[in-house]
Amino acid sequence: MFLIWSGLGFVIPLSLFACVTILEAACSEAITKGHNWPYAVSCVFTGLIAKAVANWRVKQPNKRLQDPATGQTIIVLRNDALFFIPVKYWTPILMVAAILLMANP
What we know:
The chain has about 100 residues and is an alpha+beta fold. The protein has one domain (about 5-105). It is about 55% helix and about 15% strand. The protein is built from four helices and five strands, in the order βαααββββα. The strands form two sheets. A three-stranded antiparallel β-sheet has the order 1-4-5, with no helix packed on it. A two-stranded antiparallel ribbon has the order 2-3.
């Protein structure tokens, strides 16, 4: 499986893996066995992390590069995405995934 990301898009699968690992380590197997709530909680936390990353990146200024020969200024826009979906859209995607996980016993 390939992970296609640009910019800080790698934060989403990394934080999802970390949240699932922490929740499974913190809870006993008897509590989590046969239940989807640890994965739903992990999706919620990862969605909040994605929202924080997206808000942080919006506040940062874009890079301005100037060509010394011509004097033209080029603005390099930030592009943070996972599977070609911008990071700011991963929060609602993960929240819907959490709802679907909780609805399916």
